[in-house]
């Protein structure tokens, strides 16, 4: 048996080739759209409210609509901590949800069950990620590091189990 210890927190050089850092909201929004554009089969999205993201923009609507009509049954799973912004300020995204309800699942993590997770992220096809290091700051990174992706997917699944759909996303046709 070997006593060799590998540093599992350091990505290998080829996994980090696509690592790009962003430091302000403009760069974050560009990276957000670029990550959406890389998805072919599955998107996991997690944010406090998506207020700082371009999710309600025409560019995001176009990217997501193109994504959702691809063959192979693409899926979007969205998780947030505050449903108000999406429910009141993202009519384009809500239209996509109405049109592609079979492919978009949205849940909100309620305050009483909210863990100490404070980071927004996207995982596209288990191959690309975007992560803001804290909800209050735009700083973060995008990349292809498989360990980071696996970690973010695990966090997403844990949060998903504690979350539920929210009435703020239901549109009333009167």
Mean pLDDT across the residues is: 87
Distance between the termini: 70 Å
How many beta-strand runs? 7
Task: Supply the CATH superfamily name.
Answer: Endonuclease Chain A
Radius of gyration: 17 Å
Helix content: 25-40%
Reading side by side through the largest sheet, how are the strands ordered?
1-7-6-5-2-3-4
User: Could you say which structural class the secondary elements and strand pairing correspond to?
Assistant: alpha/beta
- Biggest sheet descriptor: 7 strands, mixed
**In CATH terms, what is the fold-level topology?**
Endonuclease, Chain A
The backbone outline, from C-alpha atoms, is globular
Q: How many structural domains does the protein architecture include?
A: 1
Low-confidence stretches: 1-15
Give a short summary of the structure.
This protein has 174 residues and is an alpha/beta fold. The chain has one domain (20-168): Endonuclease, Chain A, CATH 3.30.870.10. 33% of the residues lie in helices and 19% in strands.
Structure characterization notes:
There is one protein chain. The chain is of the alpha/beta class. Helices cover 33% and strands 19% of the residues. The chain has helices spanning 25-38, 58-68, 84-89, 91-99, 146-162; strands at 20-22, 42-47, 75-80, 104-108, 121-124, 128-132, 140-143. Strands 1-7-6-5-2-3-4 form a seven-stranded mixed beta sheet, sandwiched between helices. Helix 2 (58-68) links the parallel strand 2 (42-47) and strand 3.
């Amino acid at each position: 048996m070997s006593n060799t210890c590998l540093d599992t927190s350091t990505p290998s050089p080829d996994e980090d080739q696509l690592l790009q850092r962003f430091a302000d909201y403009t760069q974050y929004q560009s990276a957000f759209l670029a990550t959406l554009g890389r998805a072919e089969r599955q998107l996991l999205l997690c944010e406090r409210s998506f207020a700082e993201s371009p999710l309600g923009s025409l560019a995001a609507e176009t990217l997501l609509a193109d994504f959702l009509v691809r063959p192979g049954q693409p899926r979007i799973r969205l998780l947030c901590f505050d449903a108000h912004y999406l429910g009141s300020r993202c009519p384009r995204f809500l239209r996509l949800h109405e049109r592609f309800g079979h492919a978009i699942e949205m849940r909100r993590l309620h305050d009483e069950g909210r863990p100490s997770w404070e980071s927004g992220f996207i995982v596209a096809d288990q191959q690309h990620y975007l992560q803001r290091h804290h909800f209050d700051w735009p700083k973060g990174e995008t990349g292809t590091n498989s360990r980071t992706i696996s970690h973010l997917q695990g966090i997403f699944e844990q949060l998903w189990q504690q979350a539920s759909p929210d009435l703020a996303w239901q549109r009333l046709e009167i």
